[in-house]
Amino acid sequence: MESRQPDHEFGTSVNETSTTTVLGYPRSDRILILVGMPLVGVVIGLLLPVLARQITGLSKLPLRTVVEFVAAVEETWQVVAFMAGGGVVGLVFAFVSLSESLTVTLTDSRVEASHDHWGKEGYDRADVAAVFMDGTTLVVLDHDSRQLVRGTHAAPAQKLAAAFRAHGYPWQDSDPYAALFRKWSPGSGALRPEVDAVLAARREALKHKSGHDVRELTRAVEELGHTVRDKGTEQSWRPLVRS
User: Fold this and answer.
1) What does DSSP assign to residue 74?
2) How is the chain split into domains, by residue range?
3) What is the average pLDDT score of the chain?
4) Fold of domain 5-25+101-166
5) pLDDT in tens, 190-222
6) Cα separation of 163 and 219, whole Å?
7) Helix, strand, or coil here: 112?
């Protein structure tokens, strides 16, 4: 049995035994984010007062009161406080960034996906009809083309494809149902009123970045015979298709 090691070619942390592959956030990237983002925040905290002093003389200056407040930061303890604040903000952004990526565990008979926001979900290999990348998003479909898993993954598509194929999963180079998607337009008549209502609620959840509500409303759309994908807050839908 091999212990967990970094794969330097792809920068992806992989734990492989004869039966299991774990694909998570790259270890090197994790270190870079946890160290780099706070450092960037510290530098911004150091330079911000200097920049503010340089622009206070502008005749038209948005948020002048805020800029003048920052420009007045000159004492050593004030600069240190700004730098510390920038470091904390950078660290928060680092943890948020890391929490957005899936961790995927594969065996020949089961796939599990875990996410900091919604926990862990697992599905039998027999229930999986297609696996592919939609941009940077990993998608796993069942035999009714429902989305069992949909989430951002940090690993390159080639790495994910190799891992899924090695365990016998039906990896696709692209979404096999991409041509069926149509942009959602409220009240267009293309969908039943109840589907429009769920998509309207889902659009609001997207605007408010409520990941839990978006997931629940996606499930509700699928219960009504359709599925949905997003580009920002713009939604596209297609009917479910039995494979």
Assistant:
1) -
2) 5-25+101-166, 27-99, 178-239
3) 85
4) PH-domain like (2.30.29)
5) 999 999 999 999 999 999 888 889 989 999 999
6) 27
7) strand
